[in-house]
Amino acid sequence: MRLENFLALTHTSLINEPCVNGFENIVFEAQRVKRGDLFFAFDDKEIDIATALAGSGPAFLALVAEAISDGGVLCGLNRELSYKLTKGLFRSFSAIDKKPADIKDSVMSPAGTTASGYEVLEEGSVRNSFIKAIKSAYEKSQKI
Fold first, then answer.
1. Span 88-99, average pLDDT
2. What kind of fold does domain 44-143 have according to CATH?
3. 40-41-46 Cα angle (round to 5)
C-alpha cells in the first residue's frame, strides 16, 4: 500500500505548501477521535525522516503485529482470537498518551512475564533492527 493510500485509510492528510521563507513545508495532520496533531518538517532532511517513519513505519508495525499474533498461535490460541487480541493491543496502545519507555516501565514487573519476553527481544537485537530499518528507509528516501 502506498503512503497516500495508507494516509487515506487512516484518515490522515499530507499537505505540501510553500513556506514564507521559500522552503517546502510538509504538514501531517493526524486525525484522532477527539483531537488532531500537526507535525511540521521544514527541510528536505526532515521530510525524508518523516517519510521513513510515517511512510515505512506501517509496514514495520505490521511485521510486529503479525509476529505477536503468530506468537499467540504458537502458544495455543486460534488464529482469529490471536489476531483480535493483537488488534486490540495496537488500538489501546495508540490511545495511551505516554512515552513508549513509560508504557514499558508501567507494565513490566520485576522478574515477570513482560521482563522475560523483553529480555528475549533485546537478545535478538529487535530495538537495534528497528533503528537500522528507519535509518535505511531514510537513506533510501534521500536518494529518490
1. 90
2. ProC C-terminal domain-like fold (1.10.3730)
3. 150
Q: pTM for this one?
A: 0.71
* Residues paired with 28 in a beta bridge: 14, 39
| Cα-based torsion angle of the residue sequence 6, 50, 120, 122 in order, rounded to the nearest 10 degrees | 180
The full DSSP string for 60-111 is HHHHHHHHHHHHHHHHT--HHHHHHHHHHHHHHHHH--S-HHHHHHHH--TT
Q: In 3D, which of 83, 74, 75, 55 has the Cα closest to residue 142?
A: 55
Q: What is the pLDDT of residues 52-83, one digit of tens each?
A: 888 899 999 999 999 999 999 999 999 999 99
Query: Domain coordinates of the chain in residue numbers?
Result: 44-143
**90 alpha carbon, distance to own chain's centre:** 10
Rg over CA atoms, the chain: 18
Which residue in this structure is represented by grid cell 505516554? 98
